[in-house]
Amino acid sequence: MTGAFYRPGTIRPPRPSRRRETIRRAVLGSVLVVLLGGSAAAAWAAVHRHPRFLVRRVVLTGVPEPHRNEVEALSDPWIGRPLLSVDLDAAIASLSSRPWVARVSARRAVPDTISVQVEPRAPVALARRGDDLWTVDQDGLWLAAYGGGPGAPRFVVLDPSGAPSPEEGVVRGARLLARLRAEDPELLARISEVEILSVGFAVVDAPAHLKLRLGDDALAPGRAFARWRAFLALAPELTRLGLLPREVDLRFENRIVLKAPGTEGPRTET
Description:
Blueprint: H1 18-49, E1 57-61, H2 68-75, H3 88-96, E2 101-109, E3 113-120, E4 125-129, E5 132-136, E6 142-145, E7 156-159, H4 166-183, H5 185-190, E8 191-196, E9 201-205, E10 210-214, H6 225-240, E11 247-249, E12 257-259, E13 268-269
Parallel strand pairs: 1-3, 4-7, 7-8, 10-11
Antiparallel strand pairs: 2-3, 4-5, 5-6, 8-9, 9-10, 11-12, 12-13
């Protein structure tokens, strides 16, 4: 027996379209970004303005005393400013441009400190600049006017007045001292002054109280200093005979030219 079968219809909720779902997710994402951004901005503002994060201390490391005021003039305005607002990159660039600075770095230390580390160029000699003396480094760079004073280190004095230009002369003089420092530090310790000539050098040997003339070959490894040593070996005998000169010319291979003391006449040769 067959009968009619009734199946009630099923009511299904409408499916949201993909477009509506994408829009909903985008809106939720935007709201989330705004909330997070607002929280971050609020936190940044709180840290930026909070008295706990104001600069209270600046630590300077490696700054030479003659340049301390120069660096403090740059760093003192940081005191009382928000730690995170201080432009350290600008400070590093400014200090790096100073001739006496080899390298510089700076960092923040939360909550209230900035540290500045400076590696200065070490002075190795003094150079005449007009009527003043300036310190210069091993590359012949002018660093600062020399203050001197008690306890100041001893420096060789470079006189570039005989060179084509003071800058070129000081560079050549610094190279001569560097060559001596590498090859014969004992000879370097005898020098009180170096006059840089258009060609070569006139070196004052302080213990011997005389001037030595060196050629430009003194800048090459192992050349002129052997002749200087040879003269020092002869000096006691020359002194005994009363022949110690006031000027010695070491510019020639296998020959030492002596200028007799107290005369302006021809030189004798040894």
